[in-house]
Amino acid sequence: MKTYLSFLIMFLLIAMAACVQDEITEELLSEDDLLKSHEIEEGKYSGILARAAEWYISLPEGWEDMDTRYMIFYAHGLQDPGEGPNLPSDTVSNRSIEDIITGMGLGYATTSYRDDGFIADEAVEDIRALHKKVCKVLKKMPPDISILGGPSEGGLVTALTLERYPKSFDGALSICGPIGDFFGQLQYNGNFHVLFNYFFGEDLATLGYSTGSPLGVGEEIMDQWRSGELPSAVQQLLYTDALQGSVKLLQLLNCAQVPADMTNPVAMGTAALQCLRYNIMITDDLIDRLDGIVPFNNMETDYSGSLNDEALNNNILRVNENSYLTAMMSIKKYETTGDIQIPFVTIHTTGDNVTPFWHDEIYRTKILSNGNGLLHTSLPVENYGHCTIEESDIVNGLGIVITKIQKMP
Asked: Is the pTM of this model over 0.70?
């Protein structure tokens, strides 16, 4: 044990020394050499932050000659545990976010974060480190205006960052993020999980599979999901349900209050699969990050919307691992305040099945309670699905942010 501890301490000291050495080396480089040392091709730069998060910068043509340089800092969405951390390669309308941003004549900067999974709290610090790195690397031609934005988990990272560090950025844009009520989001997720198991759990077990529960999932089930094996089994169940006309899927979506096009069986199945994916891939990760606390409690939940609500409420799994108060306190670091000091645009699809539209409405109420309503603009997108927006929505949102920044005293 002593040998192991000695080795661990030595490893940590070496790692810390390496980070310090990298910073010292950068300080010794001239501005031109610093820029060149990170250049991977013309106008594109990359490197590693102190906590092993990757960073990347992409500049539009003519950046150095612009009168006002705008830099968009991109906070990416969730990367499933075991699949990252990686620099994002997100697309909208079949174009990469990077191309959309630089095509508007704006700079683009992003980071992988230090870890995959639900890393929103720590990612705030990675975004701050990215901002500092951009200012250091582009010291001769730094951005004049810095705007932070991102989708889904990145939308929450955006809101938390501008609330905690209001002077780091000049404006922000959040897309379909769980920014209104994070505790409510976890109840939404957990309710879908136990309801799915109530309606489809036994049928899935006959195929040799399980989805776990809000109490835990397990690596085997997660691997089955990653491989596509489990999603295929679930799709088979949903397809059989539709053919037989048993309407289990319709009851599931109704009881879980999941927005979906109820006239389209394919859209309904897609909505259910997307919700289930988050339960399977994030449940264990989040419990670990909350030091073992299960952030879901449905002991007093009265479910409705099925063909037999009495049977549903008598037989569904009830979770009471932790009290509501304990669960709420455990996730406090993910809750927003609505206390914003800079222009902030929120874009949210009204039929979002993963992070419901009510997040946008609740966050707006928080902002108004802080007396900063004029700084916020909500842009609802009439569509089903999670973050199903178009390039024009991003362009419109950024245009509003930039206009408001230009009007700031």
From this structure: yes
